[in-house]
Amino acid sequence: MYDTIIIGAGMSGLAAGIRLAHFDQRVCILEKHYTIGGLNSFYRMGGRDYDVGLHAMTNFARKGDKKGPLAKLIRQLRFGWEDFKLAEQNGSSIRFPGVELDFNNDIAMLESEIKSRFPDQIDGFRSLCGSLLDYSDMDGDSPDFMRSAREVMAEHLSDPLLIEMLLCPLMWYGNARENDMDFGQFCIMFRACYLEGFGRPYKGVRVILKNLVRKFRGLGGELKLRSGVANIHVEEGKAVGVVLDDGTELQAKRILSSAGTVETMRMCDDITEPDVAKAGKLSFIESISVLDCKPKELGFDRTIVFYNDSPNFHWERPDDSLCDARTGVICSPNNYIYDAEEGELPDGVVRITTLANHDLWSDLPEEKYRAAKVTQYDEAVASAVRFMPDFRSRVVDTDVFTPKTIRRFTWHDNGAVYGAPDKQLDGTTHLPNVFLCGTDQGFVGIVGAIVSGISMANRHCLQV
Amino acid sequence: MTPAEIRQEIIDILDDISPDEDLDNLDDQKAFREQLELDSMDFLDIVMELRKRHRVQIPEEDYGHLASMHSTVTYLEPKMKDL
């Protein structure tokens, strides 16, 4: 009998597992996939290391910073700063036709950019910054949390273009809702991206995952891969354990699931029809190019470029096409300020993320699927090079992952990267001993997911 | 445990929770919150660590006693004197 069974060995499940194992619980993490990480995993192909997910870690903080989510998670998991060792970004840009805003990990840069490009909006921008909810108001109780971010922004800013430009990175890095954003989520992402900023460990996401797993196992936690949960078995209104895909039964006093709201409901054997309409819809493809040179040799030093090719930012699933490359994110993992002792990454890499339709990708027969990966890669790159130097003649290797890949890694409905639009911020479900963490509970991104795992473990599994 | 030992134990826990804090100059009479960057999650950790290390149970309504080092040691003394 376990004290807690955790479903999913992604960032949130591993973090929750560490908390519980540290306080002497008998914990087992069950992962359906053959590898850890969920949405933030990694792979090796053709002798090269790739990350799934991670472009940048948001919520950057420097060693010794005591405030903010990163400092909090390092304390809660008893890590040291060296375990994450984040290199700071060079600087990123928001690029729309004819106008560009640069930003880095000091909000003064974005402020001065707005002052020069949108001089009549700077006071409004400052008042918007002043109206942001604090992290301590992020439990969803604030009446402003569920307001429309567009509506709140319009109270401060009168130039619609600036509103679109500011929203673009924040939606790209953490908005499950189409076209608008909950103000609470907006505040979380604003702090994470603009006030705290971006960083990356030299070796990518694998460093973080390996540290999490090592710590979890060192505390006596059990991690079972290839162990998908077929059923959460419910008796008399309470979960008593799980049945794995291979029929193994495991008992637990409580279950903490990072599988997603709808996905978890589907597992509960007291529910016949989960409300699938509540699942998220936004998924991506990522087109990865390995270059024969460093991006900076082509005149590209930006860490991340968020681009959009018209004054209106369309944040929605393409309904009639595989992909929508009108907006995208360009990331170069080379463009961080790594320590001299670490040096530079071995290969020049450009990663481009664009919106995609999960169902259309999944419906393709294998041969067409392969062909579509090639054509959609071409389209994404052709779209992106309007906003960066054309690197196409320097490409030596490519890879593409699609919503189908994302679903395989995460098992989230629709390959929804940021989960369901309606978050279950208190982590509760219809059962008194089944709780949610991860994407559908609240914060997204690597730091957000880890904080989610910690806070749900503290709230529901430790104070008992 | 003597009050001095209890104090040292709390220092060890604080050092574990927040290794970068300077605990040498801690004023025992002043609230932790005024001197250290501790939030509610960290206070929960002090409670949890005491439970883990010494099987000391602290009910939620007593958390207020953990405001400063002095009040914490005073509160814990009867609970930990036989350990």
UniProtKB/TrEMBL annotation, chain A:
Keywords: Oxidoreductase. The keyword Magnesium does not apply. Gene3D superfamilies: FAD/NAD(P)-binding domain. Residues 11-459 form the Amine oxidase domain. GO terms for molecular function: oxidoreductase activity. The keyword Magnesium does not apply. InterPro entries: Amino_oxidase, FAD/NAD-bd_sf. Belongs to the carotenoid/retinoid oxidoreductase family. This is Phytoene dehydrogenase-related protein.
From TrEMBL, chain B:
It comes from the Bacteria. GO terms for cellular component: cytosol; membrane. The keyword Transferase does not apply. The keyword Phosphoprotein applies. Keywords: Phosphopantetheine, Phosphoprotein. GO terms for biological process: lipid A biosynthetic process. GO terms for molecular function: acyl binding; acyl carrier activity. Residues 4-80 form the Carrier domain. This is Acyl carrier protein. The lineage of its organism: Bacteria, Pseudomonadati, Planctomycetota, Planctomycetia, Pirellulales.
